[in-house]
Design goal:
GO terms for molecular function: ribosome binding; RNA binding; translation elongation factor activity; translation initiation factor activity. The protein has 158 residues and is mainly beta. The chain is built from 1 helix and 11 strands; from the N terminus they run E-E-E-E-E-E-E-E-E-H-E-E. It is elongated, with a radius of gyration of 21 Å.
Length: 158
């Protein structure tokens, strides 16, 4: 045995933590699925009968959780689909910068400054008006596959 130490540096991201495999036949409405490399919430699932080539097929209709765009996919029900790890976190809104970035307070007391205001007009107005009135706002941030976006706001003022 040699006394040398070996150091391995990871240069690439395997992407393993972004999704997990799940059999297509077990994915249901209101679940999540990756369609065309985008994380989607399943809004419709239909399953066709087995044809002469043997596989029942699942037809998925999903809405991209960040853009709201409708995407569709057809997968044999016995095959695996990628399902994104979707998480939701709440942060208190501290500040809104002129360039559209927000400053958020994390539970550990640090700030998170890498998120932009949402593009959804209704949500954007709720945040700007509430912040302008000096209300204590908590924003919900949804994250999946390395992307994050504000998707809800709550007023926690007394």
């Amino acid at each position: 045995m040699s006394d040398e130490e070996h150091h391995f540096e990871s240069k690439a991201d395997a992407g393993a933590s972004k999704t997990f495999p799940q059999q297509a036949g077990t994915i249901r409405k209101n679940g999540y699925i990756v369609i065309k490399n985008r994380p989607c919430k399943v809004v419709e699932v239909s399953t066709s009968k087995t044809g002469k080539h043997g596989h029942a097929k699942c037809h998925f209709v999903g809405l991209d959780i960040f853009t709201g765009k409708k995407l569709e996919d057809i997968v044999p029900s016995s095959h695996n689909c990628d399902v994104p790890h979707v998480s939701r976190s709440d942060y208190q809104l501290i500040d809104i910068a002129e360039d559209g970035f927000v400053s958020l307070l994390t539970e550990s007391g640090t700030t998170k400054d890498d998120l932009r205001l949402p593009t959804d007009e209704n949500l954007l107005n709720q945040i700007k008006v509430g912040f302008g009135e000096g209300k204590d706002l908590v924003v919900s941030v949804m994250s999946a596959m390395g992307e994050e976006q504000i998707n809800a706001v709550k007023d926690i003022s007394k």
